[in-house]
Amino acid sequence: MSGNQITKLGDLIMDMKDNTIMLFVNDKEGNEKRPDYSGKALWNGEEISVSIWKNVSKAGNNYLSGQLQPPYNGSGKSSSSAGVSDDVPF
User: Fold this and answer.
1) pLDDT at 72
2) What is the mean pLDDT of residues 66-82?
3) pLDDT at 66
4) Whole-angstrom distance, CA of residue 48 vs CA of residue 20
5) Contacts of 13 (CB under 8 A, 6+ apart)
């Protein structure tokens, strides 16, 4: 596993290549609205959070649907909105 690093807590840090997605199976822990899979994507050098749900169409076909968001930074706001002002400069 060249290029991978281990954190102080023993978690594996995986290097991502540009324009790729890395997903992990979620434990729903009693919350059925929680995504079945979550992870991140690296698109043109920018990290994006990915959430994926398993679904069944009205016709009975299985499919996946998903959501892409800026990464969560812990403050309740996405990291891309940090430092952005809604003030109009004119």
Assistant:
1) 78
2) 72
3) 97
4) 10
5) 4, 5, 6, 7
